[in-house]
Amino acid sequence: MDLNEYMSVRRAYNLVRQDQPSSVRLTFEEYAILCHLANIDGELKTSQIADYQGVLRPTTTHRTNHLSSLSLIDRHEGLEDRRNVCCSVSEKGRAEVARLSKALVSKIDPGQPLHRSTPERICMVVDAMGEVFCTAGDLVLLGLSRDPDAGKSISELVEMLGLLQPTVSMSVAALVEDKLISRGVNDGSTRMVRMGLTPAGNEAAEAMRGRIEGLLVHRRSRSAVSAAR
Question: Using CA atoms, how far apart are residues 187 and 85, in angstroms rounded to an integer?
Fold first, then answer.
């Protein structure tokens, strides 16, 4: 996967998420789980979902609990191990995947990567993206790495990433404290404070970029395509 495609989708979903009522708002990782379950057209154990997203089982339990509370997935205890819950996407969940994917496509600006994608294709892309956990701070690092010589202001990062300004500001503060980015003041009349990557920040961004570019977007299985019709 190309980094520009990844950033285009993450920005679009950040904008979509802001439009959702807080009571039904999904994190990107929860949306990815829905896409993953819809694409395999079957059920997975929570341990398998944890492996898919590269997280601990308690994290997966928290995410699937939220999805279940919204009736977006169906769950039942495993036959051999009752501690391992099996999950599958519900009909409501399929409808939500279609709705969110359509809304996401509409938020990708003309000329940006994947602007002409179908909602079905976006669902496959999000499924692949769900394998890499990327925080708001990681997105800031990736955003700065795309044009490392120019630097970016808070407002420019907000526009680039589709995140709320408080989220970007808190992420920047934490990254400055961790010495991953530095603040500088330009010489223009606006005296706008711009952020740039430190060597350590550039190394962290490159590591994240490598993981993203290693993602593979698969085709939907024939059974999943048939179920969607």
Answer: 58
